[in-house]
Specification:
Helix 8 links the parallel strand 5 and strand 6. Helix 1 crosses helix 4, helix 5 packs across helix 6 and helix 8 packs across helix 9. Helix content is 30%, strand content 22%. The strands form 5 sheets. Strands 4-3-5-6-7-8-9-13-12 form a 9-stranded mixed β-sheet, sandwiched between helices. A 3-stranded mixed β-sheet has the order 16-17-18. Strands 1-2 form a two-stranded antiparallel sheet. It is of the alpha/beta class.
Amino acid sequence: MRILLERGDIAQIVRDMAQAHARQFFLRADCPNLSALPPEHRQATATSALEFFNLDVELLASLEQAKTLEQRADIIYGALRQKSSFSITFRTSGSTGRPNACSFSAGELAEEARSLAGFFAGIKRVVAVAPVHHVYGFAFALILPKFLGIPALHLHPLTTADFFRTLCAGDMLLAFPLFWASILKMSQNGITIPIPDDLRGVTSGAPCAPGIIAGLLGTGAGGRRPFLSEMTEIYGATEFGAVGIRRDRLKSYALLPHWRRARVETETAGDDIMPVEWGIRRLSGKPLPMPDILDWKDERGFIPVKRKDKAVQVSSINVFPARIADMMRAHPQVCDCAVRLMCPEEGDRLKAFVVPAKSDCIGDEQAERHFRQTLKTWLAERLVPAAIPKSIVFGKALPRTLSGKTANWRIPQRGWEGHDGTV
């Protein structure tokens, strides 16, 4: 089956790209009027669209001059119709530095969709809250429905009454861990949620906690039936797309049919990486190293252990605490810094402990507030929102363990409420 992107598909991609850009730069995410945007933002969103669809650079001026998102989608649709085939380029999250470009040919996208289609027989419709300009949403909310011959509905990830009334029996709800957690919390708080028959879920982008999946599949308070009849976990990466699948949290992921385990020679060997390790390859293609350390149970079964690059995931985006701390140390008013993921009871974002170059601000609430805002503004110019620590606290020295390693720290109240890097 040949993949054809319809005009509506392109419009959805353009809308999702514009909304993501708007959120990053504090712009109106629901405004389709591109002419209302400052010139630099029109140019940035046009360039992103050009690169995503791998269009000729001569089209950039037309994309910039488009007055609405619909006009921009028309330009892209017309350009793609002139091509015999197409490729799509996704970008990694780029939490620090420049994001990597990862291109997929139409043949590779079709191969993945064929591989996935066999796992989703009986689905009547895909309902997606995952954005389609990322590899996960693109594959499952745009391409897979074409292979299954079913419709797809794209909704904002807002758990409102209207959202739940939209769901129908036989739907497959495509989402991410934070969204699933919000639904479970509503249920646990006693909020009545209308549940259609045979509602299936798919999650990816970050590991979904076992308690969340169990809660969505289990009987609710008062004997309410489970929210989901089935949850499918997808393991993948922007560089590869979907790699593994499982429907039982206690079992291994299974490689999708278009992947094979293959030996990979690595250039360097670190604490966690061996000179020769297992990677994956397509049915026709070279072996590729994995971004995670995988515990292979057999030729096709594996369990992810941890990231090789010391990344953690925040809002389904890979961020690198050590690199972020190095960047913060470059600030002229910072003497030392540590960055790490919050404890579960604190939240699910990053936190930072900063040793100021001048300690006279420590303990002065107004001075700390000013310095925290200065750091927040400085970081917002250099990092994506998920990489900005939500809590920034100050001290005269980094907390240390008896062995001299940086210790964990608790978040005091004034380092949290109202003085964070939320964007």
